[in-house]
Amino acid sequence: MSIVIENVSKRFGDFAALDDVSLEVRDGSLTALLGPSGGGKSTLLRVIAGLEQPDSGAVRIAGNDATRTPPQGRNVGFVFQHYAAFKHMTVAKNVAFGLTIRKRPKHEIDARVDELLHLVHLDGFAHRYPSQLSGGQRQRMALARALAVQPRVLLLDEPFGALDATVRKELRAWLRRLHDEVHVTTVFVTHDQEEAMEVAEQIVVIDHGKIEQIGAPREIYEKPANDFVMRFIGPVSEIDGRWIRPHDVDILVEPGEATVQAMIDRILHLGFEVRVELSLGNGEKTWVQTTRSRAEELELEEGQIVWLRADDAYRGHHAAAS
Amino acid sequence: MSSRYALRFAALGYLALLLGIPVTLVFINAFDEGIAAAWSAVTTPEAQHAFYLTAVMVAVAVPLNTIFGVLCALAIVRQRFRGRAVLNALVDLPFAVSPVVVGLALLLVYNRRDGWAGEWLADHGVRIIFSTPGMILATMFVSLPFVVREVIPVLREIGTEQEQAAATLGAGGLQTFFRITLPAIRWGVAYGVVLTTARALGEFGAVSVVSGRISGETQTATLFVEDRFEAFDQTGAYAAGVVLALLALVTLLAMNLIKPKEGQA
Question: Of A77, A87, A102, which has the smallest distance from its Cβ to B168's Cβ?
Answer without folding.
Answer: A77
